[in-house]
Amino acid sequence: MIELFNNLFFDHTLRTVALGAGALGIVSGALGSFAVLRRQSLLGDAISHAALPGIALAFLLTGNKSALVLLSGAAIAGAIATWLVTNIAGLTRVKYDSALGIILSVFFGFGLVLLTYIQKQPNANQAGLEKYLFGQAAAIVEKDVLIMAGLGLVALFLLFLFWKEFKLLSFDRDFGTTMGYPMALIDFVLTTLLVLAIVIGLQTVGVVLMSAMLIAPAVAARQWTDNLAIMVLLAAFFGALAGVSGTVASSTISRMPAGPAIVVAVSFLVVLSILFAPRRGVIWQRGRDYLLRQRFRALGGKKDV
Amino acid sequence: MPTNALDVSDLTVAYKEKPVLWDIDLTVPPAVLLAVIGPNGAGKTTLIKSILGLIPTVAGSVRIYGRPYKEQRKQVAYVPQRGTVDWDFPTSVLDVVTMGLYGTLGWLKRPGKKEKKLAMEALEMVAMQDYAHRQISQLSGGQQQRVFLARALVQQAEIYFMDEPFQGVDAMTEKAILRLLKDLRSAGKTVIVVHHDLQTVPEYFDWVTLLNTRLVANGPMEEVFTEANLEKAYGGRFMQLKATARALP
Amino acid sequence: MFSPQVEIMLIASVVAVACAIVGVFLVLRSMAMMSDAISHSVLLGIVLAFFLTRDLASPALIIGAAVMGLITVFLVEMLHQTRLVYEDAAIGIVFPLLFSIAVILISRHAANIHLDTDAVLLGELAFAPFDRFIYQGVDLGPKALYIMGAILMVNIFFITIFFKELKIVTFDPQLAAVLGISPVVVHYALMSLVSITAVGAFDAVGSILVVALMIAPPATAYLLTDRLHIMIGLSALLGVASALGGYAMAHYLDASIAGSMATVAGLIFAIAFLFAPGRGLLSVAKRRVEQRWNFALVTLAIHLWHREKLSPVVGNAYAIQELRQHLRWSSTYFTSVMERALKQGLIAKRDQYVQLTEEGRNLAREGQGF
Ligand SMILES: Nc1ncnc2c1ncn2[C@@H]1O[C@H](COP(=O)(O)OP(=O)(O)OP(=O)(O)O)[C@@H](O)[C@H]1O
Ligand SMILES: [Mg+2]
């Protein structure tokens, strides 16, 4: 244990990786809260899968493998995917869930085509794109962390700035419109931030599992509080906790992939929260029901009510 | 001539393929308590939403106190149907009511002490002050409705649009809400209410708009709330509603 | 038997058809994302069954995977029923967890399991012809073809036998309850089919592209027809088209076969999305434009008609200038509506005045639903 803390503070690589994972957890937890509350949990899944062809195309077009270039490609592809899902569901009889499924899988399939195509190219520079599938925390370097933290700070700052507007959008969009707020624009900004949060996590967690980082911290946090601000803070904390513990696990246990480890950690938090959270938690509710029944019986009530 | 509270002319609205409102002309004088009635699917909700710019219109114009709606937003308050929001949203009663002030606050500014105080006052008007810090999922249907009303009250508007505020509330709450609406009217405000219970229309309201895709009638209660008009609006269904005719003036 | 290329195309087609025909019901029941969840979590079933049997070829793997598919559905419903988690969030929590556990197990025991995570995502269609079914020394063709063929038969069998039940539960759950058909039983039966199909297809195309084959062809067919049995047939056909087209594309680009199949399935959907008669974007846009003119004409007619009824004097003429002001249309729009109305004989014009014709009056009456 002590050694672990030693490593966390003094082992340069581990510290870098853990910092990156923590930053990603904070941002995805905070933005994911809004996605979950707006019933857009699975949109996050579609966006993250759709990032793959964006990454591949960015590489094909620029020949550059730096994180900033690839992640820009991911962000653009994610935005296009969101736009397509909304329009397929809005303009035709195809329903939202089908639209999500199609965009998610077709974009991902196209991404694989590009990836395999790139692998066949006689170009020494091509290796390493696969790490975006499951993420590869170990490969994260200081510069990546700086990019992640920079993007994350921008996202969090905007979230703070437009807090009131985002809350209005999530709770009662029509009411916002009647007060004169351009709700479509606010929606666009929030969705862009969601795309940003996803992009930040791709290097560490990968496109396949990224959606869990949006959904799980938010769902866990929701159980402990009825206050949106506290929920968002708590989700950020849970996200960071899972991110750091997952990467630490992956670096201390041999052949433990980071992305899946982070997902298991965050899912563990969900289970804990759903079971043990005061008031909302399953055990709390069961206990309350039990006590009520006891009291009812003590008052001489019939058993089978 | 005093300005009308609401002028709707030639309003036509269509969802995707289907026309829902045809060529509606409507004038409402200030300081009335108006019931919008009509059968299910008549377009009552659509009328209110299109007046408030929530649904694009095919044709027509809306004026509030003589000026285009866009310039008059601050004069307008809206109480949507209760079921349109997620009542499990993590927020408190006071917070929801404070949202009514976001319009006057404008971008980026946060609600502060002053806004909280105004919201509290609105909650007192609907006798919900004790629930201010409750989470909204812990409210009954009638309490939810009163929270929505408080959110509209805090807007300090001149004209109120309410979509079925009496839906699913008990008799006590209904009376309390009615009292509130009548107070608003006495204070010179115009209150437009989508209503479903024909029996109570004459007792509660003084102005009626009968709607069934097109405008059937619009005017003071005594002139408009007649058997002939109701038959026109409700068609065959009116025969089944005939029992309510006893309640007619 | 055949050349490997032909065998790959055969396997791909069988996979596509098996996926498409169960996918139809997922699309119609708004459960498309369940295919995403199931196709990921079956991996855990495969891994666990492998630990028990130590045999990658064992049929227990398919059973294990199918059971895991059902567990996924059950877990999602259980989470949702606590009322603490929205349904879409419940899906988004359950399958990443199960999938992650599977990936960790695979990677920790990589030496023992001949499964690697790339195969999980990419599928191994290209290698399918190498694993052959040999009976008493006779080569009977690739194993995958037999497995997928069997799964396809099960699907066809189930859907034919229970066609009526599936249809009623999908389109009219209330009627189903009245007729004594349990939606829960049908639901879980369907989910079992989805799971079995996902396992079979998983080997060939990988977990994520199963989703493409299950959802894209049925959604395309949904844009083209209203009849259930036609939709099923069409989905199967479109599935085969995606498989063959995908194979050709992969061959041409020397790229992932499964990925190419998904891409082609997506392209076919895009074509239908844009051009499907009646429901495609183009048709919808065209109809909107027509409707806009129609609305305008009817609005004009009703407006003039109201006016006629209000003041049935002076030959019912109406100054054009005044009319334009009342309708509040832009002057160009107003002019073209007037032109159309004149051309269709709905109004008559004299100097600066207009008047409804009998035809126009009829249109107004119709428009008002008399
Ligand atoms: N979003 C929508 N898309 C398509 N059609 C709609 C939509 N909303 C309403 N409609 C249709 O418009 C018509 C009018 O609906 P509206 O909700 O305005 O009726 P209503 O008078 O409020 O009915 P109710 O008494 O049931 O509340 C109905 O036929 C309805 O089917
Ligand atoms: Mg309504």
Automatic annotation (TrEMBL), chain A:
Annotated InterPro entries: ABC_BtuC-like, ABC_TroCD
The keyword Cell membrane belongs to this UniProt entry's keyword annotation: yes
Major place of residence: membrane
Keywords: Cell membrane, Membrane, Transmembrane, Transmembrane helix, Transport
GO biological process, one term: response to zinc ion
TM region positions: 12-36, 68-86, 98-118, 145-163, 183-216, 228-249, 261-278
Membrane protein topology class: Multi-pass membrane protein
Domain of life: Bacteria
Regions annotated as coiled coil: none
Entry-linked SUPFAM superfamilies: ABC transporter involved in vitamin B12 uptake, BtuC
One cellular-component annotation, GO: ATP-binding cassette (ABC) transporter complex
Gene3D superfamilies linked to this entry: ABC transporter involved in vitamin B12 uptake, BtuC
Compartments it resides in: Cell membrane
Family, similarity comment: Belongs to the ABC-3 integral membrane protein family.
Name recorded for this polypeptide: Metal ABC transporter permease
Organism: Heliorestis acidaminivorans
Lineage: Bacteria, Bacillati, Bacillota, Clostridia, Eubacteriales
Automatic annotation (TrEMBL), chain B:
SUPFAM superfamilies tied to this protein: P-loop containing nucleoside triphosphate hydrolases
Family in the record: Belongs to the ABC transporter superfamily.
SMART domains per the UniProt record, alphabetical: AAA (SM00382)
InterPro entries the UniProt entry points to: AAA+_ATPase, ABC_transporter-like_ATP-bd, ABC_transporter-like_CS, Metal_Ion_Import_ABC, P-loop_NTPase
GO molecular function, one term: ATP hydrolysis activity
Positions of the ABC transporter domain: 6-238
Domain of life: Bacteria
Name of the protein in its database record: Metal ABC transporter ATP-binding protein
Keywords from the UniProt entry: ATP-binding, Nucleotide-binding, Transport
Residues annotated as transmembrane: none
Origin organism lineage: Bacteria, Bacillati, Bacillota, Clostridia, Eubacteriales
UniProt keyword Nucleotide-binding, yes or no: yes
Matches recorded under PROSITE patterns: ABC_TRANSPORTER_1, ABC_TRANSPORTER_2
Automatic annotation (TrEMBL), chain C:
UniProt cross-references to CDD domains, sorted A to Z: TM_ABC_iron-siderophores_like
Protein name: Metal ABC transporter permease
Similarity remark: Belongs to the ABC-3 integral membrane protein family.
TM regions (residue ranges): 6-28, 37-54, 60-79, 91-111, 144-163, 175-198, 204-224, 231-250, 256-278
Compartments (UniProt record): Cell membrane
Keyword Heme listed: no
Gene3D superfamilies listed in its UniProt record: ABC transporter involved in vitamin B12 uptake, BtuC
Single GO cellular component term: ATP-binding cassette (ABC) transporter complex
SUPFAM superfamilies: ABC transporter involved in vitamin B12 uptake, BtuC
One example of a Gene Ontology biological process annotation: response to zinc ion
InterPro entries noted in UniProt: ABC_BtuC-like, ABC_TroCD
Keywords, sorted A to Z: Cell membrane, Membrane, Transmembrane, Transmembrane helix, Transport
Main localization (coarse): membrane
Topological category with respect to the lipid bilayer: Multi-pass membrane protein
